[in-house]
């Protein structure tokens, strides 16, 4: 087994080396954590860039393929994988028609790849496609074969496997007279294929028939040389010969490929409309949809009519690609008719004619979801039946993102600059775009926010000079053209003097000008200048990075155009330079030589060289609180975090799939970093784990000297991290002014400073509400988040009223701002869910939607209903799909409505309705107690949705909203948000005490180590952290727990120091000395007190004696027929803290093996009790493997372990997706499972049942592909490396394993520490 290694096979010298390393290196704290991902948009350059299969769809960014999959539990699509292997633009993708796990992709570097989606790995690759594949398609009914074609042909056929594997050329499909736009195989008629050309013609080939080249051009083009490219091409799924064709200018035609005639020409409402893409609707024969190329209008057609049945304007920008997913039909659909029954079957002959449409009646669409890709990179999934977006990923960048910066006065707004010619501003809490620049700027290389709240961004472009963009007004207000046609690589707005802007360019000049364009200085360099940065301590000092390998510093207060300092040392061009915000005179530079150099301006010297990147360095970022922390991003796809005191690399992030260009953080959230890359994504990271001991000092209420200091103290090599920036000083100043609640505010403010976005502010607002804070003190943002149940209806009513009266300003709405009608509709929906039916009806009348108003009016009164009837007596309700929501509200059937919303994944809506019922706004048939239970259930369901989405903090918010502190704390614990959980628990007080004490214990385990080097999570490198003594931090945490004697004893037992050091920690913890523990142990043995005997032996000079006493007791217990987990676990838990250096000694091999086996087995049972389903089989397998390989005497049988595991799997349906179909458990298995549950008893801590799921668990990595040694499958989310530095499991599995079995899955006897 790959996760079980035998120590006996290790040679003696290696063994002792392992002993010395393992006994001190067991803390593997996760370092930089990925906490957010802004996915790229869909590229608009190539045609076949979206595809779908069953419950998945995929689209192409420039360099990666994004795969979304339906989460059936919540009925929503989630990003599941990012496939990244292509180094140049992806040109086409195609899903295998007969295997939903496989798709193919092609790219401009003449590469073709076959992917397995489930395993997220490459199955096959073709490295030389003899030209760039412009279009790609699987050969229908031809096994594993992919066809591809470049613009002029020929058509290549690649047989991936089998006897004929290799590439061949289609015998006829070559020597075309016009470029190929795209091609399509017939899905039924084997070998039949059609090509669409740029001249508007088609070429059709089929075995046994005459080939037709360049036929069926639009009539208006005949006899001319004009081109009218084929933009879309799809075979009629019910015909062997009919084909839908779209030309860029001549619209859509249905043509007969056999008779070479045009069957139907479809007419558009406007002559300006042109079609970019089309797709058949599989659930409705004869129906198809099209997307306009100029504006995002989706048109619905039926082949029996030449005009569209309906039109929906979905976006302002035009369509680029369309694909319709098959939805599971509610009843047998006409599309199941066999298409081969008649040669002349087609969508025209099989289509059901649409009903005659009256002026006011909308056509009812069949169920179906359209994957829509737009020219601006937007990607969405449109539910055509419900006429709403199920998912919309709007305005993603489609090309390299060169720069990113946080808004100076708002840590929630992040601006990005891209190769695609735009700057976009994102809300990082919702990961949505709120503003985008007009575009058409060529490449935008760099951006810089105006200081403070000026709401302007300066941008630097490749061909249009520099500009200032007013974000709120949405327009360019100034342009700078002093560099002529040369590209500007960097722009920097001075934050000390808001009137000055610097630019540097390929023309060799760094130019300083005022914002009105007056040039102040032109600094000439001998070559191109790539980077510049204003000093944060001296408003007149600026540094530049140049192609001549040098860094220069200029002083603006003099008239000289010569630099004050020139720093030499780099071996290749210098790109970015950054001044330290905390240390005057210190700056860093990144170079194409792969290094980062630290320069001291005051010493005129290079004081450190940071080596480790294997390609040019681009992104650079100093931390604004910890003066020695520096982060760099490189073309080697990695981000590295450095300790500049000694040049140590603290951590390396591998998640980007291409060159990393920009890094940034906001001063008020100094440990949240954003990065941007050529992979077109923005990723958010938490750096908090790097300075975790600081937060422990805050938790343990240490003196300010342990938290805040000056830079000189912080820069001492090996010194513990200290905060030296403005934010920490501001917090201290505010706390010094307070006379009450100082501890509460201290915990909250530091927690918010350290926490990444994603709900921590919301969480603290709810904690304040529960603790009785006055509502008037709640921030404005509170109403936008998860609210406490007592506020929900009030805030939502207020929101509804705002939506009703607000007049949308010309520029104030941001991207896609709703119209007045949409605002009124939103208001009406809120009023409805709050039970305010009459207001809903009036707003519906105002919108002209009388039918909806009439349907719920009886819920107000029959009299009111009659009034409405009189106002619209001539209108009767004639909807085929009755709107269940108004009826449920009017009749008071709240449970039915909640179930309706929940089944559709609309959990926020369900929550509103349940709360409305609880407050009596909805006249409910049943009692209020039922409503209260319903509200609790809905909140629990919503919390689970957030939790499964990797957002444990928001899950905790849902529980706090209904005063459920136990489950809120459990969410934070299961999400491994331990420091935040302690802060919140301490402030909540008694109601959270039990959970707080458990978290403190887990947090103490994190620091049960010694100062040393250790491999960090997600990294194969050893990381050095020199704290004063992590054991002291662990002791401080445990001393915050009442009745902590046993916990402190475990800490002392594990401490691996000398006798005098051990006695010191015993004294600190208030425990007897080593010798006294020996005597107490022997006394306990004589009295038959096994627990205390084991406890004191562990703290004695001979801890191994505890093994003999404890294991003998556990074996005796297990031999009894009615033993329970709780009768043996306390002893095993104690034994788990035996010093590692003693446990792995050769003379204790047998005792060690027995301890590991017993801990593994009891761990498996605890995992069943905690519902850690993913690790139960691994724990059973681990125990069985150890029993097979080691000579031991334990009262366990391998066969019995197998019987238990099978019974558990059968009774809990816990089988993997690839295993045999489910069969009901036998009576014997039911009896075995019941016996197993009797041994387990109840979990003492409520809410901890269920798997752990840390933040970022659902965020795919582009490039860091690791395979779990538990499952053999690729690990999604954070990875945890075991002590051999190679074996990996998911961090979630590591956390669950460590909570039920302290020892590593490798069977070495080393303790696992993933906390």
TrEMBL record:
<feature type="domain" description="Gem-associated protein 5 TPR">
    <location>
        <begin position="835"/>
        <end position="1001"/>
    </location>
</feature>
<protein>
    <recommendedName>
        <fullName>Gem-associated protein 5 TPR domain-containing protein</fullName>
    </recommendedName>
</protein>
<dbReference type="InterPro" id="IPR015943">
    <property type="entry name" value="WD40/YVTN_repeat-like_dom_sf"/>
</dbReference>
<dbReference type="InterPro" id="IPR011047">
    <property type="entry name" value="Quinoprotein_ADH-like_sf"/>
</dbReference>
<feature type="compositionally biased region" description="Polar residues">
    <location>
        <begin position="333"/>
        <end position="350"/>
    </location>
</feature>
<keyword id="KW-0853">WD repeat</keyword>
<dbReference type="InterPro" id="IPR001680">
    <property type="entry name" value="WD40_rpt"/>
</dbReference>
<dbReference type="Pfam" id="PF00400">
    <property type="entry name" value="WD40"/>
</dbReference>
<keyword id="KW-0677">Repeat</keyword>
<dbReference type="InterPro" id="IPR020472">
    <property type="entry name" value="WD40_PAC1"/>
</dbReference>
<feature type="region of interest" description="Disordered">
    <location>
        <begin position="329"/>
        <end position="355"/>
    </location>
</feature>
<dbReference type="InterPro" id="IPR036322">
    <property type="entry name" value="WD40_repeat_dom_sf"/>
</dbReference>
<feature type="repeat" description="WD">
    <location>
        <begin position="394"/>
        <end position="436"/>
    </location>
</feature>
<feature type="signal peptide">
    <location>
        <begin position="1"/>
        <end position="26"/>
    </location>
</feature>
<feature type="repeat" description="WD">
    <location>
        <begin position="567"/>
        <end position="609"/>
    </location>
</feature>
<feature type="repeat" description="WD">
    <location>
        <begin position="610"/>
        <end position="652"/>
    </location>
</feature>
<dbReference type="InterPro" id="IPR019775">
    <property type="entry name" value="WD40_repeat_CS"/>
</dbReference>
<dbReference type="Pfam" id="PF23774">
    <property type="entry name" value="TPR_GEMI5"/>
</dbReference>
<dbReference type="InterPro" id="IPR056421">
    <property type="entry name" value="TPR_GEMI5"/>
</dbReference>
<keyword id="KW-0732">Signal</keyword>
<feature type="repeat" description="WD">
    <location>
        <begin position="83"/>
        <end position="125"/>
    </location>
</feature>
């Amino acid at each position: 087994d790959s996760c079980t290694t035998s120590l006996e096979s290790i040679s003696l010298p290696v063994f002792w080396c392992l002993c010395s390393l393992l006994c001190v290196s067991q803390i593997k704290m996760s370092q930089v954590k990925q906490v957010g991902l802004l996915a790229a948009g869909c590229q608009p350059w190539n045609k076949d860039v979206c595809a779908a299969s069953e419950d998945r769809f995929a689209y192409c960014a420039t360099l990666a393929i994004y795969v979304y999959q339906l989460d059936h539990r919540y009925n929503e699509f989630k990003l599941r994988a990012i496939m990244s292997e292509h180094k140049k633009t992806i040109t086409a993708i195609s899903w295998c028609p007969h295997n939903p796990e496989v798709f193919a992709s092609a790219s401009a570097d003449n590469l073709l790849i076959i992917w397995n989606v489930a395993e997220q790995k490459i199955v096959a690759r073709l490295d030389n496609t003899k030209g760039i594949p412009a279009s790609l398609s699987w050969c229908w009914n031809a096994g594993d074969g992919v066809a591809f074609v470049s613009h002029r042909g020929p058509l290549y056929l690649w047989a991936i496997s089998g006897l004929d594997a290799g590439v061949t050329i289609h015998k006829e499909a070559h020597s075309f007279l016009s470029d190929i736009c795209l091609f399509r195989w017939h899905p039924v008629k084997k070998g039949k294929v059609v090509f669409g050309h740029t001249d508007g013609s088609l070429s059709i080939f089929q075995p046994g028939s005459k080939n037709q080249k360049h036929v069926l051009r639009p009539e208006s083009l005949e006899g001319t040389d004009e081109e009218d490219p084929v933009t879309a091409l799809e075979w009629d799924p019910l015909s062997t010969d009919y084909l839908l064709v779209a030309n860029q200018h001549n619209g859509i035609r249905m043509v007969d490929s056999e008779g070479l005639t045009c069957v139907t020409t479809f007419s558009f409402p406007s002559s300006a409309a042109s079609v970019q893409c089309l797709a058949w609707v599989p659930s409705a024969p004869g129906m198809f949809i099209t997307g306009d190329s100029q504006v995002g209008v989706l048109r619905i057609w039926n082949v029996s009519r030449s005009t569209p049945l309906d039109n929906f304007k979905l976006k302002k920008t035009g369509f680029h690609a369309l694909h319709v997913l098959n939805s599971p039909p509610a009843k047998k659909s006409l599309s199941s008719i066999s298409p081969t029954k008649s040669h002349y079957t087609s969508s025209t002959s099989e289509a059901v004619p649409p009903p005659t449409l009256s002026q006011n009646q909308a056509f009812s669409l069949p169920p179906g979801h359209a994957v829509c890709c737009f020219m601006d990179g937007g990607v969405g999934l449109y539910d055509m039946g419900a006429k709403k977006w199920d998912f919309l990923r709007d305005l993603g960048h489609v090309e390299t993102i060169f720069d990113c910066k946080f808004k100076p006065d708002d840590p929630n707004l992040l601006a990005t600059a891209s190769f695609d010619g735009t700057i976009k501003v994102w809300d990082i809490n919702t990961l949505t775009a709120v503003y985008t620049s007009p575009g058409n700027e060529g490449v935008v290389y760099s951006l810089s926010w105006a200081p403070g709240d000026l709401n302007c961004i300066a941008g630097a472009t490749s061909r249009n000079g520099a500009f200032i963009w007013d974000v709120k007004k949405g327009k360019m207000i100034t342009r700078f053209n002093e560099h002529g046609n040369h590209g500007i690589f960097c722009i920097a707005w001075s934050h000390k003097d808001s009137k000055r802007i610097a630019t540097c360019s390929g023309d060799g000049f760094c130019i300083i000008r005022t914002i009105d364009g007056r040039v102040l200085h032109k600094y000439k360099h001998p070559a191109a200048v790539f980077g510049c940065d204003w000093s944060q301590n001296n408003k007149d000092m600026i540094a530049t990075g140049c192609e001549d390998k040098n860094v220069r510093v200029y002083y603006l207060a003099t008239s000289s155009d010569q630099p004050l300092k020139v720093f030499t040392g780099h071996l290749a061009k210098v790109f970015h330079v950054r001044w330290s915000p905390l240390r005057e005179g210190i700056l860093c530079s990144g170079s194409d030589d792969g290094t980062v150099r630290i320069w001291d301006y005051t010493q005129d010297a290079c004081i450190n060289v940071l080596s480790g990147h294997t390609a040019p360095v681009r992104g650079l970022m100093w931390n604004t609180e910890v003066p020695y922390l520096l982060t760099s991003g490189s073309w080697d796809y990695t981000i590295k975090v450095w300790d500049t005191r000694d040049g140590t690399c603290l951590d390396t992030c591998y998640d980007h799939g291409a060159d990393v260009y920009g890094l940034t953080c906001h001063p008020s959230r100094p440990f949240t970093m954003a990065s941007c890359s050529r992979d077109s994504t923005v990723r958010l990271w938490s750096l908090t784990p790097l300075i975790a001991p600081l937060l422990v000092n805050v938790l343990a209420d240490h003196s300010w000297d342990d938290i805040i200091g000056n830079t000189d103290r912080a820069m001492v090599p090996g010194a513990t991290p200290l905060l030296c920036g403005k934010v920490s000083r501001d917090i201290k100043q505010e706390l010094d002014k307070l006379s009450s609640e100082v501890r509460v505010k201290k915990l909250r403010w530091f927690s918010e400073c350290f926490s990444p976005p994603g709900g921590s502010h919301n969480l603290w607002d709810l904690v304040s509400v529960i603790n009785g804070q006055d509502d008037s003190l709640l921030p404005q943002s509170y109403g936008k988040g998860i609210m406490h149940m007592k506020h929900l209806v009030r805030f939502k009513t207020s929101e509804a009223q705002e939506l009703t009266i607000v007049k949308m300003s010309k520029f104030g709405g941001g991207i896609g701002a709703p119209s007045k009608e949409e605002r009124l509709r939103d208001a009406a929906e809120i009023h409805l869910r709050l039970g305010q039916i009459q207001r809903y009806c009036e707003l519906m009348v105002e919108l002209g939607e009388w039918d909806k108003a009439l349907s719920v009016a009886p819920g107000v009164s029959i009299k009111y209903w009659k009034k409405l009837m009189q106002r619209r007596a001539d209108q009767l309700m004639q909807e085929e799909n009755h709107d269940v929501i108004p009826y449920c509200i009017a009749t008071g059937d709240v449970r039915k409505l909640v179930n309706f919303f929940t089944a559709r994944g609309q959990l926020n809506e369900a929550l509103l309705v349940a709360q409305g019922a609880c407050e009596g706004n909805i006249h409910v048939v049943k009692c209020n107690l039922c409503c209260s239970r319903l509200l609790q259930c809905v909140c629990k369901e919503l919390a689970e949705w957030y939790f499964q989405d990797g957002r444990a903090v928001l899950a905790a918010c849902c529980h706090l909203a209904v005063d459920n502190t136990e489950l809120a704390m459990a969410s934070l614990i299961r999400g491994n948000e331990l420091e935040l959980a302690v802060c919140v628990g301490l402030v909540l007080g008694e109601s959270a005490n039990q959970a707080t004490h458990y978290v403190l214990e887990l947090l103490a385990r994190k620091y049960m180590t010694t100062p040393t080097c250790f491999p960090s999570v997600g990294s194969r490198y050893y990381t050095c952290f020199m704290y004063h003594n992590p054991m002291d931090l662990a002791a401080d945490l445990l001393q915050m727990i009442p009745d902590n004697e046993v916990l402190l004893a475990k800490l002392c037992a594990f401490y691996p120091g000398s006798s005098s050091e051990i006695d010191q920690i015993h004294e600190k913890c208030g425990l007897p000395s080593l010798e006294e523990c020996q005597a107490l142990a022997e006394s306990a043995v004589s009295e038959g007190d096994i627990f205390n005997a084991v406890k004191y032996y562990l703290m004695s000079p001979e801890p191994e004696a505890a093994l003999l006493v404890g294991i003998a007791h556990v074996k005796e217990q297990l031999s009894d027929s009615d033993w329970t987990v709780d009768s043996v676990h306390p002893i095993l838990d104690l034994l788990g803290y035996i010093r590692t250096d003693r446990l792995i000694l050769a003379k204790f091999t047998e005792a060690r093996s027995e301890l590991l086996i017993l801990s593994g087995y009891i761990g498996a049972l605890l995992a069943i009790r905690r519902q850690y389903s993913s690790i139960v089989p691994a724990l059973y397998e681990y125990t069985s493997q150890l029993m097979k390989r080691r000579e031991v005497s334990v009262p366990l049988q391998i066969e019995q372990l197998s019987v238990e595991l099978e019974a558990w799997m059968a009774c809990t349906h816990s089988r993997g997706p690839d295993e045999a179909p489910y069969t009901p458990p036998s009576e014997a298995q039911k009896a075995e499972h019941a016996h197993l549950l009797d041994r387990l008893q109840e979990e003492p801590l409520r809410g901890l049942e269920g798997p752990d799921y840390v933040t970022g668990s659902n965020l795919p990595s582009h490039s860091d592909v690791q395979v779990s040694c538990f499952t053999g499958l690729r690990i999604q989310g954070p990875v945890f490396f075991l002590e051999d530095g190679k074996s990996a499991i998911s961090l979630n599995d590591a956390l669950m394993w460590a909570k039920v079995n302290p020892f590593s899955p490798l069977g070495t006897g080393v303790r696992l520490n993933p906390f």
